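Amino acid chain
________________
===
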Amino acid sequence: MNNPFFNFALKAFIVLALVFCTHIGILSILDLPLFENRIILSYIVNLILIIAIFGILYLLKRKYKSQLGFLFLAGSFLKFAIFFMLFYPFYKFDNIITKLEFAAFFIPYAFGLVLESVSLSKWLNKLE
């Protein structure tokens, strides 16, 4: 099947699953709490958001071809808005955002952003 959306969704799932396992493995090696700081929710939310944003861009590719970069940036803004609604209040509850809390959100966000950016740039170059 040569559907860019399906291929991206599968790739995103595999990459974030591998990153999650690595993340948990490192926490385990360092004898740190494994499933605190909303780490599972963070990976799930980031996966859903990158697949949804890619899917929306895929659907809008013909009609808004010249605005896809701005729509991608709007998707990044949406991810930060979700962070501030779902994670920030929990992390800021004790007035301290620890490195583990930051990593629980930022690691899946960063890997998702890189995957999304690389995939979209390859895909957009094929459209031209």
Q: What stands out?
A: Residues 4-127 form one domain. The chain has one domain: 4-127. The two ends are 22 Å apart (CA to CA). The helical segments are 4-29, 39-59, 68-86, 88-91, 99-127.
